[in-house]
Amino acid sequence: MRKAILARKLGMTQIFDEDGRLIPVTVLEAGPNSVVQKKTVENDGYSAVQVGFIDIKEKKANKPRKGHFAKAGVAPKKYLREFRLENAAELNVGDEIKADIFTDGDKVDVTGISKGKGFAGTVKRWGTHRGPMTHGSGYHRGPGSMGACSNPGRVMKGKKLPGHLGVEKVTVQNLTIVKADADKNVILIRGGLPGPKNGLLMIKNTVKGRK
Fold first, then answer.
1. Average pLDDT value for the chain
2. Which domain range does residue 164 map to?
C-alpha cells in the first residue's frame, strides 16, 4: 500500500541498536497531517488526498485559504501537499495521518529542497578538475575552454559554468526507518536527508521491486 506523510527536519543524532552498533539518524517531526481535501475519480478524474501540516495563526492565511480550511473544518496550515494514496478513498476530510503509518524497518523515499550554497565555481558546483598549481600556471579553478573558434562560434548549451548551487528538489531513495513514534510524532531515519533544519520533507514508502 502506498503511504506518505509530511515531516519537518529537526536535526541529526545517533542511537545504538540491540547489538551495540552506532546508527546515525535524522530526527523528523512527522505529522500529524490533517486531510484538508479529498479528490475522487468521479469529480477530479483521479484519487488523492490533500493534507496540511503545521498550524498557523488565522491572520497569516489569506482569504482563499481561510475559506478552504473553513470548508474542511480544519485549522489553517502552513503547508499543503497532495498525495495519491492507494487507500485515499478510505480517508475523509478532517482525518489525521500520524507517524504510525510507518513501522520500524520500512523502506522510504524522502524528498526535500537541498541547502542553498550561494554562487559556486565549477570545481564545487560540478566537480571539475583544477589546473596546475605550479610551474607558473596562472589557471587554477577556471571553467575551462568556452568552445570552438569560428565554428560554431558560440558557447554550447549545457556548458557547466559557475552559478547558483543548491535549493533544488532532491529525492533520496530506499532509506530505512529506524523508529516511528506516533505518541511524540517523531520518525528516525537512518542517514542524512536533504535540506536545512526545520525544512519540509515528504516521506513516501519505497515502490516495491526497487532494490
1. 90
2. 1-31+99-127+158-211
Q: Give me the percent of the chain exceeding a pLDDT of 70.
A: 98
Q: Is pLDDT above 80 for 210?
A: no
DSSP letter assigned to residue 128: P
Distance, C-alpha 72 to centroid of its chain: 26
Cell 596562472 appears where? 138
The answer to whether the beta carbons of residues 204 and 2 sit under 8 Å apart is: yes
Please give the tally of structural domains in the chain: 2
Positions of E strands within 40-185: 48-55, 77-83, 96-97, 107-113, 119-120, 163-164, 169-181
Q: Which residue has the cell 578538475?
A: 129
Whole-model pTM: value is 0.83
Q: Does one domain contain both 1 and 91?
A: no
Over residues 121-141, mean pLDDT: 93
Nearest of 193, 186, 203, 188 to residue 16 by alpha carbon = 188
